[in-house]
């Protein structure tokens, strides 16, 4: 999980033109849908969903902070601001990061954030290909177009999520922590804005001695800003005790109310949610005992596999480790379908064959097919399920497909990598 060199690629004007056309078409489709269905400022009661998460989780949380209110307390946040849902338990750092967008009027801020997300999507494609040793505008635009047409990429822009730049931070940490600890630390700080990314990523970095320095840098970068924002929030609540009460209220509402995770059984793709769903329960973000057990098991498996191949410094080994890391992050804690944007790097590495010979040709095509499931599964959406109303068994298959595919992919690649490593050790002995 260190820096990869960019190799030469064959790029012609025709390929660049076709890639530009594909990207323009994909972006137009998403943009038209987004702003045709965009939320109306001040009218949260309207059933409109374009830029909805920008309004609820980006814009008004910062406005609340600027106004001297606590955005983390659902009961007051929803009554004081025109939002449709509460502010999730994101790290305080994200409030500082989103400050520039909240200084604008809501609609202008939404447009600015949308444009920023488009830029981050292109940058995410560029970084993914760079880590694979692939360069060129045609490849970058082609992957960007594929990301925009995918379920997670489309949703990220449509609802105004923070996923693209959180994934970008994850890639910086995975790709540069060993060779450039400062850059890896910046990546960890970005990923930590969403704890479901930052916490497992940090644990995976700690498991590799060569990346612990980057982990320290990440903590040092994030801690001062987090402390300042946290102090403002605590002051708004009137002290530490009221602040802790607000956090308990926010956390307890994750699994007991429908305001934020009413569709958890539809769009959750983590392993814990899959197990809960198969047991006939509704997945929620508040960790139940079963989900916690599954989370620990997945994280432990990821750490073991990554440590086993840590000694190898070839590009294919680093990409294999990054692939395992991305799947581990998505499966070990609560994640929604749009978080599968994190699979851009693993998919690029597998499809391009840059992870060979660590991941052989047969295995990489099996893994590619499995990892593409969350990208193409538009059936597991509110639009489809509400319109077609499939029976319970069909809905279970549709909503479980994403998580099942990721679990299968992680198990298959883990067994293959561990078996190969064991075989190599026995041969050497």
Which terms would index this structure?
mainly alpha, 429 residues, 2 domains, disordered C terminus, 70% helix
What does this structure look like?
The protein is mostly helical. The chain has 2 domains: 1-260, no CATH class; 261-423, no CATH class. 70% of the residues lie in helices and 0% in strands. The protein contains 21 helices and no strands. It has helices at 13-36, 52-66, 74-80, 93-97, 99-102, 106-131, 137-149, 151-159, 163-176, 181-191, 195-206, 212-237, 240-256, 264-267, 271-278, 289-308, 315-332, 344-352, 361-376, 382-388, 392-428. Helix 17 packs antiparallel against helix 21 (392-428). The longest helix has 37 residues, at 392-428. The radius of gyration is 21 Å and the shape is globular. The relative contact order is 0.11.
Give the helices and strands, then pairings.
Blueprint: H1 13-36, H2 52-66, H3 74-80, H4 93-97, H5 99-102, H6 106-131, H7 137-149, H8 151-159, H9 163-176, H10 181-191, H11 195-206, H12 212-237, H13 240-256, H14 264-267, H15 271-278, H16 289-308, H17 315-332, H18 344-352, H19 361-376, H20 382-388, H21 392-428
Concise account of the structure shown:
By secondary structure, the protein is an all-alpha fold.
Q: What number of structural domains do the residues give?
A: 2
Strand content: under 5%
Radius of gyration: 21 Å
Order of helices and strands: HHHHHHHHHHHHHHHHHHHHH
Helix content: over 70%
Q: Regions with pLDDT < 50 over 5+ consecutive residues?
A: 1-8, 257-263, 425-429
Report on the biggest sheet: none
Structural class: mainly alpha
Tally of individual helices: 21
């Amino acid at each position: 999980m260190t820096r990869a060199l960019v190799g030469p690629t064959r790029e012609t004007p025709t390929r660049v033109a076709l890639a530009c056309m594909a990207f323009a078409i994909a972006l137009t489709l998403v943009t038209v849908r987004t702003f045709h269905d965009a939320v109306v400022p001040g009218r949260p009661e309207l059933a409109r969903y374009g830029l909805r998460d920008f309004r609820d989780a980006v814009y008004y949380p910062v406005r609340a902070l600027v106004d001297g209110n606590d955005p983390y307390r659902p009961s007051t946040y929803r009554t004081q601001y025109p939002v449709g849902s509460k502010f999730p338990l994101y790290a305080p750092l994200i409030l500082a990061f989103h400050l520039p967008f909240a200084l604008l009027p809501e609609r202008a801020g939404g447009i600015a954030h949308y444009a920023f997300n488009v830029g981050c999507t292109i940058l995410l494609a560029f970084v993914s290909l760079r880590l694979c040793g692939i360069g060129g505008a045609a490849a970058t635009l082609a992957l960007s177009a594929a990301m925009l047409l995918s379920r997670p990429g489309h949703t990220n822009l449509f609802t105004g999520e923070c996923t693209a730049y959180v994934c970008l931070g994850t890639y910086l940490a995975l790709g540069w922590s060993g060779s450039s600890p400062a850059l890896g630390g910046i990546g960890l700080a970005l990923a930590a804005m969403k704890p479901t990314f930052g916490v497992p990523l940090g644990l995976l970095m700690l498991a590799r001695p060569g990346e612990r320095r980057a982990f320290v840098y990440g903590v040092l970068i994030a801690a001062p800003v987090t402390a300042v924002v946290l102090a403002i929030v605590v002051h708004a609540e009137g002290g530490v005790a009221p602040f802790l009460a607000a956090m308990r209220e926010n956390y307890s509402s994750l699994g007991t109310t429908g305001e934020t995770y009413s569709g958890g059984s539809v769009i959750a793709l983590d392993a814990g949610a899959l197990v809960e769903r198969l047991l006939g329960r509704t997945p929620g973000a508040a960790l139940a005992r079963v989900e916690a057990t599954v989370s620990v098991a997945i994280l432990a498996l990821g750490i073991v596999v990554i440590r086993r191949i840590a000694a190898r410094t070839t590009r294919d080994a680093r990409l294999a480790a990054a692939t395992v890391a991305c799947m581990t992050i998505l499966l070990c804690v609560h994640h929604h379908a749009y978080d599968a944007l994190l699979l851009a790097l693993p998919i690029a590495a597998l499809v391009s064959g840059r992870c060979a010979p660590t991941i052989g040709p047969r295995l990489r095509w099996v893994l590619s097919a499995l990892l593409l499931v969350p990208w193409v599964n538009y059936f597991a959406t509110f639009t489809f399920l509400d319109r077609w109303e499939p029976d319970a068994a069909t809905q279970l298959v549709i909503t479980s497909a994403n998580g099942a595919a990721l679990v299968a992919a992680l198990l298959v690649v883990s067994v293959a990598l561990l078996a190969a490593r064991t075989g190599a050790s026995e041969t050497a002995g």
